[in-house]
Amino acid sequence: MKGQEVVLTDMLACRERRVNIQNEYIQRYHCPVISFCMNIPGPIKTNEQIKKAFLSGKEALFAVLQKENIPILTQTEFDEKTGNEIILTVDYPADRIKELTTEIEETHPFGRLFDMDVIGTDGEKLSRGVYRKCLICGCQAQECARSRKHTVAEMQAKIEEMLS
């Protein structure tokens, strides 16, 4: 996979920034937050193909929010070597937002690569109703990740195949 490599400290700083923004938005608006980025294993988190997939997911997310008449109160977007990311505050019940974002993740052609988190007004991330499937074997993704069943190179090859 081609692209600029990131290191652990880059990813930790990105995660800290994301959490700070999420907390700030929840405190300010007392509404749920949607945090959307890509789920890309390995040291390369973005390139032109990944950005196109992200934009496709962003379009799908905004289309659902518009269809459901869900007001967006704030919007912050990042396009950095750690990946593309958008953080939204929405005025709508968090559990219903989670259903909508899970549906996108489950049905969109690149949905398996999407990481659409919903954070409730209590600051807690809502869980999905169903487990995510592994990109490679279809088993429960968390189990494959925990046991390191597949190499980063295998996962990157599968992602490149999906995106091409």
UniProtKB/TrEMBL annotation:
Keyword Lyase attached: yes
The keyword Nucleotidyltransferase is assigned to this record: yes
UniProt entry keywords in alphabetical sequence: Lyase, Nucleotidyltransferase, Transferase
Any one GO MF annotation of this record: lyase activity
Domain of life: Bacteria
Enzyme class, first EC level, given as a word: transferase
Enzyme Commission no: 2.7.7.61
Gene Ontology terms describing biological process: prosthetic group biosynthetic process
Residues forming coiled coils: none
Catalytic activity: apo-[citrate lyase ACP] + 2'-(5''-triphospho-alpha-D-ribosyl)-3'-dephospho-CoA = holo-[citrate lyase ACP] + diphosphate
InterPro entries: CitX
Name listed for the protein in its UniProt record: citrate lyase holo-[acyl-carrier protein] synthase
Organism: Coprococcus comes
Gene from which the chain derives: citX
